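Blinded run. Sample ID left blank on purpose so nobody reads anything into the name before looking at the predicted structure. Input follows.
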Amino acid sequence: MRLPEAVVAILGQAHTIAVVGLSSNPARPSHGVARYLQQQGYRIVPVNPAESAVLGEPAYPDLEQAAAAVGAIEIVDVFRRSEFVPEIAAAAIRIGARLLWLQEGVMHAEAEQQARAAGLLVIANHCLLKEHARLREAASGEKK
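Blinded prediction complete.
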């Protein structure tokens, strides 16, 4: 997938990513993706009411409480089933996120459209780790 330039720009400028559905279980995909993003220099904000802390960061039960505690959240990365996307997209709009990223297998056309209509960029059914790594690889290849 070729990411839109605006998405690439946000990934390059963003500091904080809320990971909705982040698990403390290292075997879960959300944990591996969040750990990778943390290693790339992003601040990870776990959003999961069943967790108290993940990857050394306090967890929050929802996006609004996360944003109230940490300030601006530029990217919302979603590891929840598609049926939960409408409420997450609405919360992402309310907190002023710039990018709503729905992981592989996560899609909801109506919620995606509502987020776009509110000014968010939306990527659905793609892995943020894979796309970020691809961008890094392409950038390192260009510099050689």
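Unblinding after everyone has recorded impressions. The chain has a mean pLDDT of 96.
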